[in-house]
Amino acid sequence: MATVHRSSGFIALPARALWDVLVDLERLPRWQPFVTQAPLRDPVGLGARLDWVPDLRGAWVHRRFAAPAVVTEFAPERALALTQDEPAGTTVLRWTLRPAEGGTVVEQSVRSDGASGPLFDRMVARRFAADADTSLARLSMLAGPPRAADPLHVVIAGGTGALGRRVAADLVRRGHAVTILTRSIRADLPYPQVTWDGRTVGAWAAVLDGPNTAVINLAGKLVDCRPTAANIAALTASRVDATRALVEAARGKDVRRWVQASTTAIWSDAGERWCTEDTPLPEPGLPQMTGVARPWEEAARDAGAAHRTILRTSIVLDTDSPAMAKMVGVTKAFLGGSLGDGRQWFSWIHRDDWLAVVRAGLGIEPGVDLPDGVVVAAAPNPVRNADLMRALRRHLHRPPAPPTPAPLLALGAIGMRSDPALGLTGRHATSTVLPAAGFAFAHPTLDGALDDLLG
Fold first, then answer.
1. What share of the chain is helix, strand, coil (3-state, %, to 5)?
2. So where are the chain's domains?
3. How confident is the model over 334-352, as pLDDT tens digits?
4. CA gap 8, 30 in Å, rounded
């Protein structure tokens, strides 16, 4: 059975500019970091051979014994494919270019087939497909770079996480400049990075100088941990301290837009209460949910920006996110039954829709006029946990699985150093602000979102 990894992204450049870089195959290592060398044996065209070398331990074996990859599709400004014969299988790398308003949609797919397909999927395909958004951003920088009509300089705190990397790549491909605030420089990111400690104002604050500056604040410790007093304090501090430092650094500066991360978990376990932007917060709420998110939002209250959006984000469905990776992993392991009674609500949003909501908060999403204040970043069709797990099993071709009783989940969470409340609580959260502002979801239903992400 073939395994295919697909990803796509909009780039604000014409297809010809992108094609010129794509077909210059010896430049492949400059925008695809999994490839270390790519010498051509023949002039580029149908049938041309390429001795590409992957960034793998033991790559010398590939260099010494692997057959060359062959160009098996060559349609100028439309499609390019490379086929690598493997022992008892093949790996196919394919890119397509589709004109879109203001630029081009680039799709990349990596397909492993044959008896050795599962092995080469793990060794090659997954590595090649990893962080494809950033690879496409590198491609855009080589081909252009793109430049928006009124470009923003967006400072992203928390820009090295899964969502931060997504939004940074998306903005660069659309012609905006980004700077990442990070505790340590990441060599695998092609954007300017400035170090900070996430607590105090320092020399890093200079990144907020200059015109057309915007802030996206995603900084914060991952929430999947035991709900101990020490962990809750660390979750809160990592968010509140970083936000306060950003607010102080921006004081007196001309910041145009501020997109502040928050979470729909601010409503804790909402039961059958349906939550929108105007729904009051619970008192006191769960300490690891409301107790963390409320002070996080309050810390951004004095953010000195012309426009400010508080983005209460639901679970983002993204193949690179820890949350979805865990759900897919347990389902593939034939453990994809419902959690507890399975009636808890699951609010979610496809990664592409989340990116579009962020762009709306930055004032750069065409046709969307988002007001300041709280915005719920969640698709219009939440589902029950039982329906979520049923959909995952269907898309991953797994049979029905027994539910996991709440006491068993709580016991397992101890060994996994996790919080059982993440799976046993839920909330029906949707937005009234987004549709009123003219926002249309590309993926309004769970089945459609999973079909796009999982095939």
1. 35, 25, 40
2. 3-143, 153-454
3. 999 999 999 999 999 999 9
4. 19
